[in-house]
Amino acid sequence: MSVQPRSSLKENINRLVIIAGILLILKLFTYTVQDFLPVFSTVLGKLLSSLLPFILAFIFAFLIEPLVQKLIKSFKMKRTYSSFLVITAVAIFLILLLVLLGSRLYKELAELTTVFPEMYNRSVSLITEQAGIVQKYLELNPEIQNTIRSSSQDIIASLQVILKNGSISLLAFLGALPNFLIIIIITIVATLLTSISYPSVRDWFYQRVKGKYHSMTRLVVADLGSALVGFLRAELILVSVTSIVITIGLLILGNKYAFTIGILSGLLDLIPIIGPSLIFIPWIIFLFFTGALSSALKILFVYLAATVIRQILEPKILAQGIGIHPLPTLISIYVGLNLFGVSGLIIGPAIIVIYEALRKAGFFPK
After folding, report:
1. Domain locations in the chain?
2. Which range has the worst mean pLDDT, 30-34, 162-166, 204-208, 300-304?
3. For 159, which of 144, 201, 227, 366 is 20 to 30 Å away at the CA?
4. In angstroms, rounded to a whole number, what is the distance separating the alpha carbons of residues 84 and 77?
């Protein structure tokens, strides 16, 4: 008779232990998500920002290493001089490119500033005219008037918040400019020092890996390095294609500011999803409401042509750059976008690249 109570007591104790374990796991999970992860992410962010110049220096040193090696082999030059010449040549090329592009942009923007007041006055007169028509309609509908009045208050409050956040961001950006210049200088110096001692740095890293993983790690690093170079080259090609297509299209239409708009569209193309639409959609809407329907359709055609060409070329160019078939690349871009948002456009292909590099090195069964 005493066996059954003991067994039931034991079962109840087991259940209590299991429940207590589950509750403890849930508590640890809650603590990790709510308390630990925000602190960890803040500390990690500060650590990465502190190490950013040196991370960039190592990446830049890796990118210019083929040029450094070519100078060393061709002219029997010391690595110190070779690294210095390559970094100096790249810096001069970028400065000249910025000067040439900047002078042309300055010229077109100067002309645009003289035309902008007229465009502004036309926009104001158009909005005033449309507002008069709307006002006459609203005077006959008090209920709509009350609804719009309450909605306008919410819109004004939202605009105040946006303007406040925008002014704070602008002040923060202006305040960060001196720090940004310091980061650039430190990055250049660190790139030179890293490039000079690149073989030693590389060998030191490989020496940290022992045994059979030594050669596998070399293969992974080589694949990831070539993928990084290919990704940067692919992005440069896509941005150039967008700029060229838009510039040529606007030149055909006789637009005076084709070069400026093409360059700005190419730079905006680096922003996923939004891209050149930040320029073209307001422009098309303005032309449509000012009665220039033909011009609006022509600008829309240029914008759609650039967008379609980029969407067609992106999977193929990225696949060639990072060494993966276009179909997995397209799938990784789409899945990454749905899972992680805008950042998934980079995270998705990056995961595929890392997996392929590990698989080729033998970390996973083929």
Report:
1. 50-208, 212-366
2. 162-166
3. 144
4. 11
Exposure string over 2-19, b if 16+ CB within 10 A, otherwise e:
eeeeeeeeeeeeeeeeee
pLDDT average, residue stretch 71-97: 89
Q: Which residue has the tokens 């719009």?
A: 148
Only one residue has tokens 């805008």, namely 342
> What pTM value is reported for the model?
0.62
pLDDT at residue 86, rounded to an integer: 92
User: How far is residue 169's CA from residue 233's CA, in Å, rounded to a whole number?
Assistant: 31
| DSSP structure class, residue 33 | I
Contact criterion met (CB below 8 Å) for 229 and 319: no
Spatial distance between the Cα atoms of 55 and 187, rounded to a whole number of angstroms: 9
Furthest-apart CA atoms within the chain: distance in Å: 102
Residues in the chain: 366
Give CA separation, 240 vs 93, 207, 229, 270, in Å: 17, 40, 16, 11
User: What are the helix (H) ranges across the chain?
Assistant: 3-31, 37-75, 79-139, 142-196, 198-207, 213-252, 258-268, 277-289, 293-322, 326-340, 344-361
